[in-house]
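Final report, Chapter 2: Outcomes

The project's central promise was a pipeline that accepts a single protein chain and returns its three-dimensional structure in a standardized token representation, suitable for archiving and comparison. That pipeline is now operational. To close this chapter, we reproduce one record exactly as it appears in the project archive, with the input sequence first and the structure output second.
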Amino acid sequence: MKKKWKIVIGALVAAAAAAGIAARVFQRVEVRTKTVAPEKIARSFTEEGFVKAEVEHTVYPMFRSRILSLAVEDADRVEEGDLLAVLDDRETRYAIAEVEARLKEVEGEELKLTEEPGAAAMEELALAIEQAGVEDQAAERDYLRTKKLYEEEAISRETYEAARDRLEIARYELARRKKGREALRESYDPPPGSREVIAGRREAFRAQRDLRRYQAGEYRIYAPVSGFIGRLVPEEKEIVDPRTPLMTIFHSAKLYVEADVLTREVFKLAPGMAVRLIVDIEDREEEFEGEITRIARHAEEDISPLGLEERRVRIRISPAFPEDLPIGPGYDLDVVFTTEKAEDQLVVPLSALFKYDGEDALFVVEGGRARLRRVTLGLETKREAAIEEGLSEGDLVILDPRAEGLRKGARVRAR
């Protein structure tokens, strides 16, 4: 009896084993597939870009002062020459008044240099000189008469010498009077160079006055260009200085995009190349074209998000913004640079590829089975690769070659 049960159990085990083998043989592996057809493939990289205005003018005050009034608000449209702000100019007005007072002082000093002696004093001196001249002539006549008498021995020597002394005294007095008149005139003449010194001071004060008047005009700030007000920083009554930007004026009709590209990538770019620009708008992306217009001739140091030092080159792009796209200076967007592309290629995901005996390979579906194909790769991106040899249009490529149970010759069911 026991022997019979052993035979039955053995038969059952053998049947189960045969059924398992049959199931494995006839079982189909479900796989994801792609029917390859000619398409284009492109190698690209993406950088962050920023929208800028062709005409962008930052307005600064020339002096430290308090804002009395602001004539504009953020986003206002202004024309060149429009009033933007008025600053407190009292300090400059006080300085102008001080310089003008200095000028009056100089003018007073200059008048002193041109002052002449008084008429009465000069007339008195003239009469004194005239009287001294009369006395001189009288003394000379007396001397000549006395001299002749002395020579004729009609008078004594003492009388003669007395007449001579009176003549000398009279001549001295006449000379003294004339010298006094000259001294009076000279007392009104300035020292050499005095006029030049005063003229120089006058010109210096005039220059200071003109400078202050020019500065006074700078306390009223006007728009240097036409455009829209942006980055309006201060408020009324705040104190600002030349290091504080008041606002920026953007000419929104002339916008461009700037992006910084790693030096290893910039060699693949050239002016005239097309780029794709992508802007995130709520729950969708707006995509449009752009064109590289300028590539900087130098690189600048930058720090990556990971804190690594990088060298980047600035790229300027002319965008074709849609007319209904509300975008302006300061907006950020993605710039997609396409460095290489090819048309009419049989393209597969990189995930479909694997190495077989050191060569690139993939699985295709033929007759319901997985068949291995050795392939030659062409243009490759981060996600796809073009197949130059080993595939034909219409081939069904298995996308997940590492699927459980998948091997050469395995039965497969494509989905």
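Archive annotation: The chain is about 35% helix and 35% strand.
This record, like all others produced under the grant, will remain available to the consortium after the project formally closes.
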